């Protein structure tokens, strides 16, 4: 028996479809998708990069990760800025900015989420968890 439960578009736009709704995003949370078929975690994708499945569910990240690559960008800005690739604890990689001295951010540094969206660039902002001791840098 068919029963009408509401608009089909509003049913498909929820977290079951894996779409990230910007209206429900909080400034302190980082949302990602996980494939229900193979379990791969990803950041802002429409299809799973492993199995090409479209059945993604939205989850909330705990906000801790490791810097995989850090670089300093000098173009299109009045001052130099940091751009880093951060591998989160859940297994996905996100591009963002790490707060701190530009010369003090290296691969392997542990970071945690400070703000999920930078007001200027729209990227997540991270801060160093602990300052590692580097005597020869």
Structure report:
This protein has 137 residues and is mostly beta strands. The protein contains one helix and eight strands; from the N terminus they run αββββββββ. The strands form two sheets. Strands 4-5-6-8-7 form a five-stranded mixed barrel. The chain has a three-stranded antiparallel sheet with strand order 2-1-3, with no helix packed on it. Strand 5 (81-88) and strand 6 form a beta hairpin. The protein starts with 7 loop residues before the first helix and ends in a 9-residue tail after the last strand. The relative contact order is 0.17.
Helix-strand category: mainly beta
Tell me the total number of β-strands.
Answer: 8
Q: Give the overall average pLDDT.
A: 78
Name the overall outline.
elongated
Q: Numbering strands along the chain, what is their spatial order in the largest sheet?
A: 4-5-6-8-7
| Continuous helix count | 1
What can be said about the biggest beta sheet?
Answer: 5 strands, mixed, barrel
Which percent bin holds the helix content?
under 10%
Computed CA radius of gyration, to the nearest angstrom? 18 Å
CA-CA gap between termini: 71 Å
Question: Summed up, what is this model?
Answer:
The chain has 137 residues and is mainly beta.
Helix-strand layout with pairing:
Elements: H1 8-12, E1 31-35, E2 41-42, E3 56-60, E4 64-73, E5 81-88, E6 93-99, E7 110-115, E8 125-128
Parallel strand pairs: 6-8
Antiparallel strand pairs: 1-2, 1-3, 4-5, 4-7, 5-6, 7-8
Brief descriptors of the model:
mainly beta, five-stranded mixed β-barrel, 1 helix, disordered N terminus
């Amino acid at each position: 028996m068919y029963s009408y439960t509401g608009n089909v578009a509003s049913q498909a736009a929820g977290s079951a479809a894996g779409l990230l709704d910007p209206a429900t995003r909080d400034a302190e949370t980082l949302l990602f998708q996980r494939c229900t078929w193979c379990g791969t975690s990803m950041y802002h994708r429409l299809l799973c990069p492993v199995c090409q499945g479209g059945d993604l569910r939205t989850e909330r990240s705990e906000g801790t990760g490791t810097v995989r690559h850090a670089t300093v960008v000098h173009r299109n800005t009045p001052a130099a800025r940091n751009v880093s690739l951060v591998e989160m604890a859940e297994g996905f990689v996100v591009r963002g900015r790490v707060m701190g001295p530009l010369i003090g951010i290296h691969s392997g540094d542990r970071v945690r989420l400070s703000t999920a969206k930078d007001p200027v660039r729209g990227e997540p902002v991270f801060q160093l968890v602990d300052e590692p001791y580097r005597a020869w840098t």
